[in-house]
UniProtKB/TrEMBL annotation:
Protein name: MFS transporter
Pfam families: MFS_1
Annotated GO MF terms: transmembrane transporter activity
Bilayer topology annotation: Multi-pass membrane protein
Sequence ranges assigned to domain Major facilitator superfamily (MFS) profile in this UniProt record: 12-520
Length: 539
């Protein structure tokens, strides 16, 4: 498709961006709404699963579809992805408990993985790397725009409408995206001589699922297992067995689902390692910042959306700047290092926030993170695409998405364990020997007072206010003291995750320092190449 007219390319890109926006906005709208949704459905201990299952199925879909789209073309898969995403989002809005929500989010995640994999690869079908940088920046900007609108709309919905509409409000956009792709996206013939690597796909899926389940299930609390338990060790063992079988299979099959030769390319390997760490570190901000704003600062979901909005705006601007800079210069290494280092500094500063931190200072720290993320996020998928031949574009792009998704999922598991462990130890310290006044209350009021000891209640402001109003006046001082103590515990646990996220991001900076820089190929370079060949053949 690289030889299509520019007008046709732009038309196709508009269709792709509508599909990406549909996927992105339905994800970001949930961010500030999830604390309230969890408060309504219950099951805060399973909160991370609603995120983890989405990322897990996204990861599996991304890598499986990468090779298949190389063979059959991108169009059928991006249509299937939009369809699955729409179904999953609709069903998520029908959830009556946390476990249904987790199940339906798995469908949504699979659809999102298909959309992301095929959409970013399609840019490579249309443009060469240097021109691709501009469009990659714009595509990343789609996520930034959705990060601005999503929290605002999500906060408004849970404050003024039923939470189910968080999942349904943008579904008509899915129909529009489906129709645009169906009519505008060209269909390409199947690539001859390629076979589907079923066995490799099976072993790769086993490896990914076992690994992500191990990190997701390990920790403390209901549904969790100790890191040294037989369940977690068994999952890690299954990961090793699956990986060994996958490597053996990929070294023998004709058309591997993930060619091992990709990782002989140091640029691909280093870029994917950096993308993995970027995905893991950024989760500390994307997931837990709304928890801090709503649970610790006591701000409504819509207010949380306004506080997160400046970060999203500067991220969009930084992404656009990064894309233009790479297109103009053909260079990326300095941008990658600067972006990751800025992100590290921003997340590290979030480690020092407390319940008394002014909102304006919190916004400044988040904006620093946004600038860094905006500058670094478009880089690593572009470096991978620039380092491989066009024939491997789909599977190489999928590997980039795979490692970033793996990083996000494993990051959630690690950061969630840190937060839960820190919270459990602090709550134990707080309750030991502390007089709460609970013993002076009738059973019903004592039960309500006991709910104040659960950090989950901090995420549902209307419920918290209702409990306080129903308590006797003489008990209110105890209740207010309890709420303040729980907020302090919640704050300490969340800021510990920010510190861990900063350390992970610092490791990404180190990886980026060792990334080999190769100038991005431009349209001019592509046009010169045939003339060189002709000259050499005529000599």
């Amino acid at each position: 498709m690289i030889h299509l007219t520019e007008k046709k390319k732009i038309t196709i890109m508009i269709a792709i961006m509508v599909a990406m926006f549909f996927s992105a906005i339905n994800q970001t709208i949930i961010g500030v709404a999830m604390p309230r949704i969890i408060a309504k459905l219950g099951g805060m201990d399973y909160y991370t699963w609603a995120i983890t299952i989405y990322l897990l199925t996204t990861t599996v879909a991304t890598i499986l579809v990468g090779k298949l789209s190389d063979i059959y073309g991108r169009k059928p898969f991006i249509l299937a992805g939009i369809g699955l995403f729409t179904i999953g989002a609709f069903l998520s809005g029908l959830s009556t408990d946390i476990f249904q929500l987790i199940a339906y989010r798995s469908i949504t995640g699979f659809g999102a993985g298909v959309i992301m994999s095929t959409a970013f690869t399609a840019i490579g079908d249309l443009y060469l790397p240097r021109e691709r940088a501009r469009w990659t920046g714009l595509m990343s900007g789609i996520f930034g725009i959705s990060s601005v609108l999503g929290p605002l709309v999500g906060g408004y919905v849970v404050d003024h409408l039923d939470w189910h509409w968080v999942f349904w409000i943008f579904l008509p956009l899915g129909i529009i995206a489906f129709m645009m792709i169906a009519f505008l996206f060209p269909k390409v013939p199947r690539r001859e001589g390629e076979t589907i690597d079923y066995l490799g796909s099976f072993f790769l899926t086993i490896t990914i699922v076992a690994l992500l389940l191990a990190f997701s299930l390990a920790g403390e609390g209901p549904g969790k297992y100790a890191w040294t338990s037989w369940e977690i060790l068994g999952l890690f063992g299954l990961t090793i067995i699956g990986l060994a079988a996958f490597i053996v299979t990929e070294s023998k099959v004709k058309s591997p689902v993930l060619p091992l030769s990709l990782f002989k390319n140091d640029i691909v390997t280093m870029s994917n390692m950096a993308g993995f760490l970027l995905g893991a570190g950024m989760m500390g901000v994307m997931i837990y910042a709304p928890f801090f704003i709503q649970g610790v600062k006591g701000i409504s979901p819509s207010g949380s959306g306004y506080i997160m909005m400046p970060m999203s705006i500067v991220m969009v601007l930084a992404t656009a700047f990064a894309g233009q800079l790479m297109t103009k210069t053909g260079k990326y290494k300095g941008l990658a290092i600067a972006g990751l280092l800025t992100t590290t500094i921003g997340i590290f500063l979030l480690h020092f926030i407390t319940i008394d931190t002014p909102i304006y200072l919190l916004i400044i720290y988040l904006c620093i993170v946004g600038i860094g993320l905006g500058a670094s996020m478009p880089v690593f998928s572009l470096t991978v695409q620039n380092a491989v031949p066009l024939r491997q574009l789909g599977v190489a792009s999928a590997s980039s998405q795979l490692f970033r998704s793996l990083g996000s999922t494993i990051g959630i598991g690690i950061l969630g364990t840190i937060m839960s462990s820190r919270m459990a130890s602090r709550l134990t310290e707080m309750y030991t020997g502390q007089s709460t006044g609970q013993s002076q209350l009738p059973p019903e009021q004592a039960k309500q007072f006991g709910e104040l000891m659960n950090p989950q209640v901090l995420l549902d402001q209307p419920k918290l206010e209702q409990i306080q109003k129903q308590l006797p006046a003489e008990i209110l001082p105890y209740a207010e003291k309890m709420i303040a103590s729980v907020r302090e515990v919640f704050s300490d646990a969340l800021t510990s995750t920010f510190l861990a996220g900063a350390i992970i991001m610092l490791a990404a900076v180190v990886i980026a320092v060792f990334l080999r820089a190769v100038p991005l190929v431009s349209e001019k370079d592509h046009q010169k190449q045939p003339r060189k060949s002709e000259k050499s053949s005529g000599a």
